[in-house]
Amino acid sequence: MIEVEQLSKSYGPIKAIEDVSFVVEKGEILGFLGPNGAGKSTTMRILTCFMPPTSGTARVAGYDIFTDSLQVRRRIGYVPENAPLYTDMPVVSFLKFAAEVKGLSRRERLRQVGQAMDDCGIKDVQHRYIGKLSKGYRQRVALAQALLGNPDVLILDEPTIGLDPRQIIDIRQLIKGLAGQKTVILSTHILPEVSMTCQRVIIINRGRLVAVDTPENLTTKLQTSSRLLVRVEAPATDVVRALGAVAGVQTVKEDGSAPGKVVTCIIESKKDRDVRKDVAAAVVRQNWGLLELRPVDLTLEDVFVRLVTEEKESAA
Question: What is the pTM of this model?
Fold first, then answer.
């Protein structure tokens, strides 16, 4: 559905992106991650024909962004990070106008506007002026606009920014429900959102791709050690010292403490070494209270930080 081949974009001597290539299959939800300035928004603007690349090309639904840009735009629903909206228009009037611009018939306009307002939870504010809405509601209006015209592809740049927790869950479920129906590229800084919504992840840093895989495969590949979470009722310094002396333990890091001398630690050991019995025995020998002991995997946040840090160090 989306094929990107060696895209590069330069602003004078500054390379915003360099030799970016990836494929997004039909019906797939792809997470697009990277620190600020990594090249995420530049890539999205190129895919939506807002700007041309310096070199390389891309195809959306089989149409080239250079030679068939109008066909590409007809097949894309786009929500930029700061979505431009007509703040002096009521919500329903703006959506009807957007549907008309997209070429929908009168009957289809009414049907799709109603459906988009239902899906995005904005029917209760449909007669309010957009300029009077909260940032969260304006973001929902932008997403409803992107859904009009039943596009094959949705490109969403921080779609849940400014939403409250309940609204985030609603929009997340809406996006997740599009899997198999639409191809979605989702850019976000909320990493748990990617884990819960996206089937594959692209991580970009300094304009270059550093990883393309499923969240599960990324964590498995980078999990070079076994990790345990241990919560003990004892002084933090004593716990770290005692558990660090257990055979097979490589590192012990304090991960928080609570009133009453309760400390949480993350223990790392060799991947093929199970130190749970030895750790439990060490706690018992000290007559401490063992409140929790369980294995923990790398999170997507751990993966993101590790890949970006490694890429930064290799470039230094």
Answer: 0.78
Residue 255 and residue 214 in one domain: no
Q: In Å, how far from its chain's centre is CA 241?
A: 38
Judge residue 208's burial from the number of C-beta atoms within 10 Å of its C-beta, 0-12 exposed, 13-18 middle, 19 or more buried.
middle
Residues 144, 93: contact at Cβ < 8 Å? no
The C-alpha atoms of residue 199 and residue 29 are separated, in whole angstroms, by 6
Quick one: which of 60, 92, 94 has its CA closest to 74? Answer: 60
Edge to edge, the sheet with strand 14-24 lists: 14-24, 2-11, 55-60, 63-64
3-state secondary structure 30-59: EEEECCCCCCHHHHHHHHCCCCCCCEEEEE
297/76: higher pLDDT: 76
Q: Is the pLDDT of residue 224 over 90?
A: no
Whether residue 306 lies inside any domain: the answer is: no
Contact 47, 58 (CB under 8 A): yes
Instruction: CATH number of the domain at 290, please.
Output: 3.30.70.3190
